[in-house]
């Protein structure tokens, strides 16, 4: 359990730390890898969500997954990129969160991931929560905690 006061203050910023789907770069599962390669290279993010045509979340694709698919027996073979689809190489074992997950779950999951995918109950992609955005809320919380709550040291060291 995390401190209720900390949780309340972080939750005040909840609307700020979700980056909504319309602002998140994505590719479709049936896009070819050359398209995904261009998108990732242009936007400068190393990993982005993969969706189906109905906006369901399907997985994540990164530049390294794409470059690995270029490796052939005789070195790098970029011709694979126009033949293979994103669904063939994307990562599918991805933790997702929804409105049932609290801040504690999100904090735990963000230890190992730079961002978390948020979906609704039908697995429709809602947006992402990045470590960066959550850090802004934690920064707010540590500055506000003693202004808004009485924090008492229970045991001196
Ligand atoms: P940040 O914490 O802002 O550095 O973002 C962490 C990761 O989240 C990035 O490396 C991307 O993989 C992903 N990400 C952040 N913002 C976006 C976005 N607008 N579109 C797609 N992916 C994003």
TrEMBL record:
<protein>
    <submittedName>
        <fullName>CBS domain-containing protein</fullName>
    </submittedName>
</protein>
<keyword id="KW-0129">CBS domain</keyword>
<dbReference type="Pfam" id="PF00571">
    <property type="entry name" value="CBS"/>
</dbReference>
<dbReference type="InterPro" id="IPR048125">
    <property type="entry name" value="CBS_CbpB"/>
</dbReference>
<feature type="domain" description="CBS">
    <location>
        <begin position="90"/>
        <end position="145"/>
    </location>
</feature>
<feature type="domain" description="CBS">
    <location>
        <begin position="18"/>
        <end position="79"/>
    </location>
</feature>
<dbReference type="InterPro" id="IPR051257">
    <property type="entry name" value="Diverse_CBS-Domain"/>
</dbReference>
<dbReference type="InterPro" id="IPR000644">
    <property type="entry name" value="CBS_dom"/>
</dbReference>
<dbReference type="InterPro" id="IPR046342">
    <property type="entry name" value="CBS_dom_sf"/>
</dbReference>
């Amino acid at each position: 359990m995390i401190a209720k006061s900390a949780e309340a203050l972080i939750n005040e910023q909840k609307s700020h730390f979700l980056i909504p789907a319309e602002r998140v770069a994505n590719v479709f599962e049936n896009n070819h890898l050359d398209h995904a390669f261009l998108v990732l290279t242009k936007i400068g993010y190393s990993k982005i969500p993969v969706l189906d045509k109905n906006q369901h979340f399907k997985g994540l694709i990164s530049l390294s997954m794409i470059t690995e698919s270029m490796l052939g027996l005789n070195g790098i073979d970029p011709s694979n990129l126009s033949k293979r689809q994103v669904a063939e190489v994307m990562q599918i074992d991805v933790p997702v969160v929804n409105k049932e997950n609290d801040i504690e779950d999100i904090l735990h999951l963000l230890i190992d991931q730079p961002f978390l995918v948020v979906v609704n109950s039908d697995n429709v992609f809602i947006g992402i929560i990045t470590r960066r955005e959550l850090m802004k809320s934690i920064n707010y919380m540590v500055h506000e905690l003693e202004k808004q709550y009485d924090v008492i040291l229970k045991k001196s060291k």
